[in-house]
Amino acid sequence: MKSLVLAAVLATLAAPAFAQEAPAQPADEVVTTARNSATAAEVAALAPPTAAAGLAPAAIVAWLGRQGVTPGPVEPDGDNAYVRVTDGPLNWILFFQSCQNGVCADLQFSIGFATAAVTPELVNDWNRDRRFLKAFYEPAATAGEPASGVVQYDLFLRPGEGPEQLSDHLAVWRGLAPEFARLTTRPTAAN
Question: Which residues lie closer than 8 Å to 97 by C-beta, 6 or more apart?
Fold first, then answer.
């Protein structure tokens, strides 16, 4: 009996919402659901406060230094930034993406090699046979120069978590980037 009364009450409360028409609003300011409408500002006011969406580059650079790599200074790149990192024999770049107010929401690890070993087939094989790090082929800019192979790894940062959230991602990067380096710098028949 209680569930029948509850169903009747819910149906009565929902009925006026379906019968109402929302006042006309510019299309870009209205958020519509199946039951009602609200402006984007009204929806934002109702949302609970969230932690900063990402991390400051300085916090990530300090964390990297504790992981056995040598990061350089953070360099500006338009609205974003990057840092060059020395990791044993490899030098790679960490790009800070989607930065706002000194906090970046996502990162991209990147390393490239310009050698005679780099071919479209090598890059295609890499992408077919491996997950996580994706490569692209860049033809030589001038005749007589070698082509480039670049491998990258993108990730989103979770709000409210520190740089420790990068531990697994750094392990994936440090495990696969050297393999890409070996493939792209191996001796070729032309050498």
Answer: 80, 104, 105, 106, 107, 108, 154
Helix and strand numbers (H, E) in the chain are 5, 8
Residue 181 in contact with residue 150, Cβ under 8 Å? no
Mean pLDDT of 155-163: 93
3-state secondary structure of 21: coil
- Per cent of the chain over pLDDT 90 is 65
CA 88 – CA 29 distance, rounded (Å): 52
- Who wins on pLDDT, 190 or 121? 121
For the chain, list the domains and their CATH numbers: 2-46 (no CATH), 57-185 (3.30.1460.70)
pTM over 0.85: no
